[in-house]
Amino acid sequence: MPEIKFMKGNEALAEAAIRAGMNGYFGYPITPQSEVIEYLASEEPRHNYVLLQAESEVASINMVYGAAGAGARAMTTTSSPGFSLMQEGMSYIACAELPCVVVNVVRGGPGLGTIQPSQGDYFQAVKGGGHGDYRLITLAPNSVQEMVDFTVLAFDLADKYLTPVLILSDGAIGQMMEKVILPDPVKPSTNKPWATTGKKANRERNIITSLYIQSEDMEAKNLRLQKKYQNIEQSEVLLEEYKMSDAEVVLVAYGVTSRICKKVVDLARAERLKFGLLRPKTLWPFPKAHIDQLAEKTVTKQFFSIEMSSGQMIEDVRLVVNGRKPVNFWGRNGGIIPTPEEILAALKAQL
Amino acid sequence: MKEGYQLLYKRPKTLLDKRMHYCPGCFHATVHKLFMEVIEEMDIQEKTVGVCPVGCSVFAYDYMDVDMQEAAHGRAAAVATAIKRMLPDRFVFSYQGDGDLAAIGTAETIHACNRGEPFTFIFINNGIYGMTGGQMAPTTLEGQKTSTSPYGRNIKKVGSPLKMCELVSQLPGVAYAERVSCNSPANARKTKKALRRAMEIQSQGIGTSFIEVVSNCPSGWKCTPVQSLDWIKEKALPYFPLGVFKEPSK
Predict the structure, then answer these.
(1) Which residues of B touch A71 (CB under 8 A)?
(2) Which of A123, A302, B37, B72 has a Cα at 20 to 30 A from B191?
(3) pTM
(4) At what angle are helices A57-69 and B76-86 packed, to 10 degrees?
């Protein structure tokens, strides 16, 4: 029987990780996501996972590397400055093809910034962040329920593709409380023949590495990675549409901003303005094919990318629309959550 | 074997039959062999997981026939921590150089030791950055010339060489810390004994074991292998004295 609870986003994510069979958590406290490690610490005696508060985010992500390489369902969670510290590790994990889940509950930046919610880490999430050619499956929840659902999904995608999966949340989704349906606990597969668990007599030694010192080997590795990324782009795009069937003005928004934009659409429709919302649930892979179709439709007049940043996702929308329709931006940043009325007024001025 | 011959010396089966990339005379080869002998003699090949660093021993997994993970520069202790926590009945070791363990990875080293993570550090201290071409290390001796201290290490400018065994032995989490060398057959035998003891301490789960090997770098020191042994005896060992710095409490 599914269990229904009233929970904070960060705690719901932690509970979902337990139910998804996470058996190794390594993290360092940082606002606004410390509830994750606090929840896991208080639940620890009732479960069978390894929990360790590391000395830094640099250590956390490398512990995730070690645990994932040893066959664990490993996770770490952090917020923006902490995620910056993890970038080297993300690159190593992507190249070593280790499955793990990393959560960034984004706060306002740059620098030490603010502990208020933001979407300023979009570029870092979907354009790399660390060095080299790699991609992160990036899931963007917009409710406490999706903090749960995407955590379960993230572990499964990580195992399916042997790749790190990022949940790009924000301080608002992490901190707010909502009704949530919790899934039944699962026992994930432990069949990981590549894991470093000790070399048995009947197999070669297992090596987890991201070192390919011969150029030809490194190129071959990159080609293999790119093939995997192409498969992911073809198979794993997730999106939600709201009142899109006759929409002339397409709002593109993700995370907490998409919740606000639903209200914007309703307010606009009350004024006979045909607004609709397209919400990427996966920021990478980005819903390119879908936006491409929208750009072709005669009914589509204009796109707006609405973000709690200075305009980052808009670059991906523009790349797909490629000049066929106007693509405009509106956003607040610094940790300010805009109101629907404020957004509608601003968009009407740009129509 | 030929009739009338007696086998006195052989490669342990845990050490792969490969030509090593290490420079002639380098102790890495010696320590690899001694450590793999320990793994063979303790019959723990199936239960051993190693972590190799960034530096000359980045390819240690090409020679040691055990499961291994390659860590980012300085993070071997974090990686080893997680492996040991996930697989507490395995024997876990990190094999690190001085730049890795005592410069970029100092935080990970100290905190793993302070938590008493029950894995074994094998710390190869040759006082120089070998793989990157002979730059100054945190353990470069005062006055020692390297490519980034061409007039000799100036301790007023860059501090004194770090004595890691002395440092970590202050931490309650560390069960066993010993500094050894391989500059003579007798010392090499002591190194093997220390490595074995460190692995035995792992199975007791009583804390971190830390073996520092005062090592050499004929290429980086710009001398012959034999001259490097003299340097160890005359310069390195007076500053980095050999011996046991921490014993498991009885």
Answers:
(1) 86
(2) B72
(3) 0.97
(4) 50
